[in-house]
Specification:
coiled coil; 1% strand; mainly alpha; 2 domains
């Protein structure tokens, strides 16, 4: 039977706990808290994976012992520095429930994009040159980001496109249940589901997950749609991104978790199993 790499990264814990020790000794409380809460969050994720998702072949005794040791160390640090991890955990659970509740309410609301809206217009070929000039700066920025992304490809190079696509496809499928997707699709002049998913919904999820502003996300989406032959008002686009950011809050959180897991060596199949538990929450 094929054994997937363990999701639990011992080096992550060792490096970050060491970094915490250095920062706290230097009395950099703010940076130290950021590091230790990152450790705490990943610990909760790994505990869920080990308890609910990992198969017998993926469970190693040293992994379980490592998590126990880290949890014990965090308890000691909490007592010493009063980080209040328990309160943080309860707050996260409350926020996730709010996101779920808000998403369910939004399912019954009419989508703000009206199918008769003339937000999108097909552009004549003569207008493309002017539009491209407006977005040269944005395109250069996108190119720089693409170059940065190449640094992460090594951890995924052994996977096929079909395997990697399992994760975004699962997250997108979940995202489309958070609002009236069929009606939303009709608001586009051509109901191209692939275009809407890949050039609209997914950039919102990814952008929000990695801390991009609504304006930054809007710039990328606007550029993609213009190149596909459609025009959309930036103000309307920003408003929609803000709305979808609220509706897809859980998917945004899950995408960040999934991305971290993939780049730590977890197999996409294991990641899908992991995030399926989170999306059910």
């Amino acid at each position: 039977m094929k054994k997937y790499p363990t999701m639990i990264d011992k080096n992550f814990y060792l490096e970050n706990l060491s970094a915490f020790d250095i920062l706290i000794q230097d009395e950099d409380r703010k940076q130290a808290e950021e590091v230790i809460f990152r450790v705490y969050s990943i610990l909760q994720r790994d505990k869920i994976w080990l308890r609910d998702i990992a198969t017998e072949e993926e469970i190693f005794e040293e992994d379980a012992e490592l998590l126990e040791e880290v949890e014990e160390e965090l308890k000691e640090l909490d007592e010493k520095y009063n980080f209040r991890f328990d309160d943080f955990y309860k707050l996260v659970q409350q926020e996730m429930k709010k996101i779920q509740s808000t998403s369910n309410l939004n399912n019954s609301e009419e989508d703000e994009f009206d199918s008769g809206d003339e937000t999108f217009e097909e552009k004549d070929e003569d207008e493309f040159d002017e539009i491209n000039e407006d977005f040269e700066i944005q395109d250069e920025k996108d190119l720089e980001e693409d170059e940065d992304d190449e640094e992460n490809t090594d951890t995924l190079s052994h996977l096929s496109d079909e395997e990697i696509d399992l994760v975004p496809e699962y997250i997108l499928a979940s995202a489309k249940t958070r609002f009236n997707y069929p009606e939303f699709l009709k608001s586009f002049p051509i109901a191209d589901e692939e275009l809407v998913e890949e050039q609209f919904l997914f950039p919102i999820i990814v952008g929000k997950a990695f801390g991009e502003t609504d304006i930054e996300i809007a710039g990328k989406i606007h550029s993609n749609f213009v190149m596909s032959g459609y025009q959309i008002e930036m103000n309307d686009l920003i408003t929609t991104i803000e709305q979808k950011g609220k509706e897809l809050g859980l998917e945004i959180l899950v995408f960040k978790v999934a991305s971290d897991s993939l780049h730590q060596g977890a197999h996409p199949t294991a990641v899908v199993e992991q995030i399926s538990q989170l999306l059910k929450g």
